[in-house]
Amino acid sequence: MEVNVFYLGIVGAILGAVYYLITKNHGYFHEKPIPSMPVKPVLGSIADLMLQRQSFYQFMKKTYDKYAGVKVFGMFDLMTPVYVIRDPEIIKQVAVKDFDHFIDHLPVFGNSNYDHPNLISGKSLFSLTGQRWKTMRATLSPAFTGSKMRYMFELIVECTQRAVKYYEEEAGKKGAHVYEMKDVFSRFANDVIATCAFGLQVESSRDRSNEFFVNGKKMLDFSRSTVILRFIGHRVVPALMAYFGWDVIDEQQNTYFKKLILNAIKEREQRSIVRPDMINLMIQAKKGTLKHQKENDQLTEGFATVQESEVVKSTDTTVMTDVEMVAQCLIFFLAGFDTVSTTLLYSAYELAMNQDIQKKLHAEIQETRSSLGGKPLTYDAMQKMKYMDMVISEVLRMWPPAPSVDRECTKDYVMDEGNGKKYTIEKGAALWFPIHGLHHDPEYFPKPDMFDPERFSDERKGSINAGAYIPFGIGPRNCIGSRFALAEVKTILYYMLGSFSFERCSKTEVPPTVMKGFDVVPLNGMHIEFKPRTEV
What we know:
By secondary structure, the protein is an alpha+beta fold.
């Protein structure tokens, strides 16, 4: 009996010590002159997200609105103290002017400070930190310029034409038909990335169980409990995760894509194959021959497109290893797949619900078709489609693919909110930019729940606060692939709306119930009818 009591005492002491270690920082914000959210052990202030009780959109909107009138408030992302910045001017200050204090992301996909052959995700651009991030970004940056997108654009068009042809053939058999948009556009995004990033030609609409799509879908299923635990593990005990080589991505998918990429690189190098895609650009980066070219300053780019900063352009490049090339292709897949398919899903929904807007967009598409004389869409012609850009810009405002983005503080920073309110953000703390909250704030976007592309007209877009509209992030660490993502979205809408109108049907949920947790797609799917157009 005494022995049992002794062991129980040891267990109790251990549990008490663990509890102390995971809660000792919970009073962090008590000494700060800002309000803060309640915090729970391990899960911090985001328990509702981690336990899938709220959607990410709901969480960001609710917390943003709760602290109306406040420029900054505190919360905990798991065990990390986070300053949520509600003020666009402060966002511009910390993300652009004082970027050197906030250069890193939180280690969501793996911690680049720990190494293991299986940890591919930690070597991706998203996960890299400090100087390693700067040199990798500088190395990859030329691959995502407008001039490079122009060369790759033909591949996007060819892939899109094949996909739309499938639905045209289906319409010939069935007439108007209802489709689930996440499935339709996930397959499209998968095929574009397959051809542009991996050098493969697949048609996932026809071959619905092709190996590339099946493995990609498994890799992107972040709702599984095992994946959620790995996310938490890389944040809380990164050294342990690195020791065992537990990547966020399953070993099966890691092995599949790694083999696919390395085989493609080897074949091209041995046979001197040149193709205008991402692998070709990666091979150039590996050799150190990928350089910035002078851009055509006359070309107008989409409003949401983010520009590369001088911080990156002035940084020396690096010679990439094979594993680093694999990591960049994987993160390109992860980031591009969901961003594009989600934006297209909500584009179809808003156009189906706003037929007058769809009619106006279709008229612009027909006008562009006429100007091209029946030839395929070109990159320059796409960039000239002003109303298309207005529509997509508004979709990204209402339904941003990332409801928030983060930055990690790499050295102590004195936050000055004005009016004498100053305090120190310590190294290791983080920032959140609440994108969804900002995009739905009536102070910056009147009638925020109304879908209104005219917000982005030539006459009105100049009044938009650059710190309040950030669908692709802000500052040097913005999304490197914004041009590519926008090109995909606009191309599929150009060809799809040329052949079909998007129609609301009995299965269309209005408004859509968004999935709980970190995913931002409709829980019950998004069902839209593709109605074949009869006009020539």
